[in-house]
Design brief:
Helix content is about 0%, strand content about 65%. It is mainly β. It has a 4-stranded antiparallel β-sheet with strand order 3-2-5-6, with no helix packed on it. The protein has a two-stranded antiparallel sheet with strand order 1-4. The radius of gyration is 12 Å and the shape is elongated.
């Protein structure tokens, strides 16, 4: 497992999801209202997923931030 932290610039709905290389959502880690300038912390437990490349996508305030992750077992 790993911890993912994010701090939105403005308050509002935020969705943090993890996708496989095919673009399929394999986990939704956060789906709710996030307060501006307050760090959110979620744990991603990938124990049920195979090794490979995954993408964490944060959608908040009309913006999408994407980070690539490599899972090795």
């Amino acid at each position: 497992s790993t911890t993912i932290r994010f701090t939105p610039a403005v308050s509002g709905k935020a969705v943090l999801s993890v996708h496989n290389v095919l673009g399929e959502i394999v986990a939704t880690l956060f789906d709710g209202v996030a307060e501006a300038r307050r760090m959110q912390e979620v744990t991603f437990d990938a124990s049920g997923l195979p090794s490979g490349v995954y993408v964490a996508a944060l959608v908040s305030d009309g913006q999408r931030i994407v980070k690539k992750m490599m899972l090795l077992k």
